């Protein structure tokens, strides 16, 4: 599953602008708010707080953990646009009101701005992270 082309293009433009000037121009910030709505500003706050961690195992499997504003850690999968937070389940999956939640948007913005924390874990640690998420849900 992919984001709409306009969203993909906006994230590409943000990445290019940030690489050149180390900031995101106002027009792209407005575009972010237009496309992603109310989750744009909170997502930028998460990026500013360096709340996004890229977790990588030796086999190359990657997931992201985002420390939410509530202090809870959410697991995000950028490859399939999925987050374990309740807002994702409700606004994105059930109601189709949003493209994604603030946590996944923060992951994409952190990637674009090179603002991800990095964490190398063993395969066993990665498995434990994934299993812990399943227990939280069930």
Structural domain count:
1
How many DSSP-defined strands? 5
Q: Pairing-aware structural class of the strands and helices?
A: alpha+beta
Provide the β-strand percentage band.
15-25%
How would you characterize the overall build of this protein?
Helices cover 53% and strands 16% of the residues. The chain is of the alpha+beta class and 138 residues long. The protein has one domain. A hairpin with a 5-residue loop joins strand 1 and strand 2. Helix 1 packs antiparallel against helix 2, helix 1 crosses helix 5 and helix 3 packs across helix 5. The longest helix has 17 residues. The radius of gyration is 15 Å and the shape is globular. 27% of the residues are buried. InterPro entries: Znf_SWIM. One of its GO terms (biological process) is double-strand break repair via homologous recombination.
Characteristic key phrases:
138 residues; alpha+beta; five-stranded mixed beta sheet; 16% strand; globular
């Amino acid at each position: 599953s992919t984001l709409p082309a306009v969203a993909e293009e906006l994230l590409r433009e943000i990445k290019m602008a940030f690489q050149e000037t180390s900031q995101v121009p106002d027009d792209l910030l407005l575009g972010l708010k237009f496309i992603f709505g109310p989750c744009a500003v909170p997502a930028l706050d998460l990026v500013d707080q360096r709340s996004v961690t890229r977790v990588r195992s030796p086999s190359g499997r990657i997931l992201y953990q985002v420390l939410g504003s509530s202090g809870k850690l959410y697991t995000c999968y950028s490859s399939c646009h999925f987050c374990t937070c309740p807002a994702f389940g409700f606004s994105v999956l059930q109601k189709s009101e949003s493209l994604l939640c603030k946590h996944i948007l923060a992951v994409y913005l952190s990637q674009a701005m090179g603002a991800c924390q990095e964490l190398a874990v063993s395969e066993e640690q990665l498995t434990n992270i994934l299993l812990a998420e399943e227990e939280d849900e069930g």
